[in-house]
Amino acid sequence: MLQSDKVQSSKEGKIRLRNAYKEAGLTIEKLAEKAKVSQDTIKRLLGTKDYRNGVERRQVESIAKVLDIKPTDIVDPKDWNPQQIPPEFERLIKDKTESFSGRKFVFDAIEEFFSNNPNGYFTVVGDAGMGKSAIAAKYVLDNPEAICFFNIRAEGMNRPELFLKKIREQLMNRYQLQDAADTDLSTLLIKASERIGVGERLIIVVDALDEVDQESTGNLLYLPTILPERVYFLLTRRPYNQNEKRLNVSPSVSTKELDLRDYANRSSQDVKEYIWLLLNDREYQQGLSQWIQKQNHLSTTEFVEELATKSENNFMYLRCVLPAIAEGFYNNKPLDELPVGLQGYYENHWQLMGMTTKPLPKNKIKIIYVMCALRSAASREVVAKYSKQNELTVQEVLDRWAQFLQKQENYQPPRYRFYHESFRDFLHRQDIVQAAGVNLPDISAEVADNMTEGLFGYE
């Protein structure tokens, strides 16, 4: 945005501005003199003088600097930094934050790091399904000043050149950077940092570093070793070995990691909060209540405690199991027979879907593995083509595995892809592959032979 762009004060901002100049021992006249703005400008921000078009951003910054407050203390943050989420990530962010709850301890730690360091990398580490992407999505949604990139292996959105392209577009748009179409990330950040307003900071959220497709050496996504002041990265990734870290920075750049596995008690509270949230959700309330009532003398509180334990603090487990209970999938199973942990859930569901019965349903198994091999979301017709199965059989599999799939209805015909990479990982487990009697290289080669470049991926 330009310094000459117009903004208006929020209801809370008017109160904050009035209190701030009085606490500083200033009058409107003295504040105007120090900030080098007119008294009418201050009166407009206080709401004591009418104005339609707002006041210039640079004027708000000058006033905020004099009062030692942030421009966003006067102007609503969403108006000061309008949301600029790339369309590629809008659906993901909406999906990940739809039933979001808890994680306050994570956001508090992030804010503390950003507030106490001149720049740096803050990384959230956790196992599959622990809510890392949801944390990243929620942060972007609640902090309009943040720009973002979500690595999505299943869609081929996980390569350094795509990362740079999307980050460059957001930086150029937000900070009106000229002649930066071919600029590297380090130079871009320097250019952008020169335009960061008073009391502002530049935050770049990058989700799922473990999904990056980059063979060459150096930092993942070529993240800079040196950062300008007031420039921060919020990263998420799965646990890694030291040789997989691939984030080397200068001693002048601050770093911190928060490993969700080290916060079992706090995560457990968040998990319980999430269960209560779905228990009161209109979509699931009746089904969950009926299932609980069928259990022998099981109270709702006991259900929450027991399911939280079985989840092993894994939100993906709850996202799968709670809707399944509500839909009657476990009507014949008591609480103590529900699967334990995310991998336990996958194994249990795989068996319940008949994927281990003799003779093996090889046509349905192949459909699942073809979807695993496809690089991005695909329509029923495309899945049928590459699996060499008829569309009715494919649709049956899609319906039966609906809770594992993300249906993209903005395409016609609709496209489907696995909701979470952890299920793709499960399908690649050696014991599952051997028991299913599939040959992954053959399936991948069969798909690759017929797939033209760019058909499913991003140009």
TrEMBL record:
Domain called HTH cro/C1-type: residue spans: 17-74
SMART domains with a match to the protein in the record: HTH_XRE (SM00530)
Protein name: HTH cro/C1-type domain-containing protein
Organism of derivation: Brasilonema octagenarum UFV-OR1
